[in-house]
Amino acid sequence: MSSYQGGHGVRGRGGVWIRRVGHSDNQGQVSASQYSANELEDRMSELVLQPAAPPENTVGTGKTKYLRRPGKGTRGRKVVIRANHFLVQLSGKELHHYDVTIMPIVTSRGTNREVMRALVKVYGHSNLEGRLPVYYRRKSLYTAGPLPFESQRFEVSLADEDQFLRERVFKVEIKHVGSADLGHLEAFLMGGQPDAPQGVIQALDIVLGEHPSSINSIIPVGRSFFSDSFGSHKLGDGLDSWRGFYKSLRPTQMGLSLNVDTLYTAFVVSTLVSEFVSKLIGKNLNNSRLTNADIMKMKRILKGIKVEVTHRGNTRRKYPISGLTTVATRDLTFTCDELGTKKKLVDYFREVYQHNIRFLDLPCLEVGSNPKRPIYLPMEVCVIVKGQRYEKKLSENQKTNLLRATCQKPVDRENNIIKFGLTVSGQPTTIESRVLPPPLLKYHETGVQKECLPRFGAWNMNDKKLVNGGKVKFWYCISFSPNFTPNDARWFCKELGDMCRVSGMEFAERPILPPIVAAGDRLETLPDLLIAILPDNIGNLYRNLKRICETEIGLVTQCCLTKKVVRANLVYLSNLALKINVKVGGRNTVLADAITRRVPVVSREPTIIFGADVSHPPPGEDGNPSIAARLSQSARLASSVRNRFLAPQRLS
């Protein structure tokens, strides 16, 4: 039994649109045979390009025109649902925007925020007349009502914990930029203005995010806010997932609404670096030897993480890790005075701090702002600073644990949103919606079930055959997994072949070669299909295999993870058969209404349906590009796809 979830997720800048490509009274066919070549050339020369007049059903000012909504849908069963939107009431206060300049310039947003907090603490009741400003991204300040000046400079002192608690003096200039027109927003929400005042909405969105940003235990990340007090789960290898919430102010038909949703992201566990490293490499540091792979993994993960020292009493200085030493702690020496005297780090810590270093075979951390003269710190005297988001790539095991933590039922998700205590509105918004009737699906006439009506967005392939089965005469099965035995491969190939044939495909009983361990010199014939068994920790193997096979060689591939294949059941095999069938030119099912030409618009005129999406690289893969893909379909049944790869272009 195999089941499929109806609908699909839209991400990036994806979308679908339809364009009519011709019209004729002759069953939608356009013919040019009635004209000679010379007549066509004459007619083409008479064409004149000119701007099209905007349709009558548009609204908007200036160059931007928007199509009016043609009406409201009526089909389907009416239901009332709760949305994660909370209505917001506008106050009559005027919102003012100020430009902020802090000197000397610092790159840390946290330091800039501390400077502004100190400014409000010192000057809040005097120069600011008690108004509580909202500071945003180094340069912007917002207040409810005007400040008593157009421009003014302030001097603020801030203790620098990274410089032995010395005070740093900052000069802050605040200059009035303008005020937000809340009347324009109110008119837009009432339908009196066609254009949304995005600047006003952004300013209000910033104001709503000020309260969680000001709480030390909450970590802001863009429009999202995270804290381990909201809930956390262990991901493994020294990482935890923290629960947080996303907020965004949106204009809606019901008024101004605060969109709130829960989400998770990975944070580095606050612990001794030595304990973190032990979890990271999965070894007991007391009795295990480190390999080069261990050192490389430690260096890659630790770089950039901020640590706090514990061996200097109350002076808890913080440093970002810049690297690891190339020698073990027991052999590490450094220059301890201006005369160039060399001293062992182990002896120095024993004499100065009365600390006997335990893990002598570990490398030391390199910290400090001078790469030519780094500061060396043993891992056991450094604690990872709490609240650091992990922005590198997660391992496959960590991804799995994160997905388990984020999988929630709608009712649980709603309760978590309400628990954040937002005072905008008491309950989520209720919306009247419609459940559309599912389309009737057509399968092959030789199956027991020739048609299928999905229920609750799901259906299966029981007693059905593919409407058009693809052909696979020659195929290979190659294993890249050390845990996948030849017996496993023979069993899997037989079961998969049986499922493809039962589903209605012409599928060869055996591959050209028996299942083999990957060996490029043995692939002499280009097959119709390559089945690749991948290890569970695939790294870059999947991406490289797809790139080489499908964009350079022109070989259709189907990749399978070892953990799925070794316990493959009928559901998994059926899903694989459906994916393979489409890839080799078959069609799984079609809309019954498309066959009888009853699909609105599409059935009446020749039509192209376009879909587009942008896939962005995950965190930790900044060197990889975003990939834009476009799909179009002009066939009458709109149920098959052919790939075409174009030369890559860099978009600016």
Automatic annotation (TrEMBL):
Residue stretches making up the Piwi domain: 529-629
Gene Ontology biological-process annotations: regulatory ncRNA-mediated gene silencing
Domain PAZ: from-to ranges: 276-386
Keywords: RNA-mediated gene silencing
Entry annotated with the keyword Signal: no
GO terms of molecular function: RNA binding
Region: Disordered, residue numbers: 53-73
CDD domains: PAZ_argonaute_like
UniProt keyword Membrane present: no
Family as reported in the entry's similarity comment: Belongs to the argonaute family. Ago subfamily.
Matches recorded under PANTHER family: EUKARYOTIC TRANSLATION INITIATION FACTOR 2C
Protein name per UniProt: Uncharacterized protein
